[in-house]
Amino acid sequence: MRRFFSIILGSAVVLSVLTAPILTQAVTSTSSIDEIMASLQEQINKLKTQIEALITQFQALRQAQTEVKETAKEVKGTFQLINQLRFGMTSEEVKHLQEILATDPDVYPEGFITGYFGRLTEKAVKKFQKKICVEQVGIVGPKTLAKINELLTEGAGASGKIPPGLLRAPGILKKLCTPITTTTTVPATTTTTTIPATDER
Question: Which residue has better confidence, 158 or 101?
Answer without folding.
Answer: 101
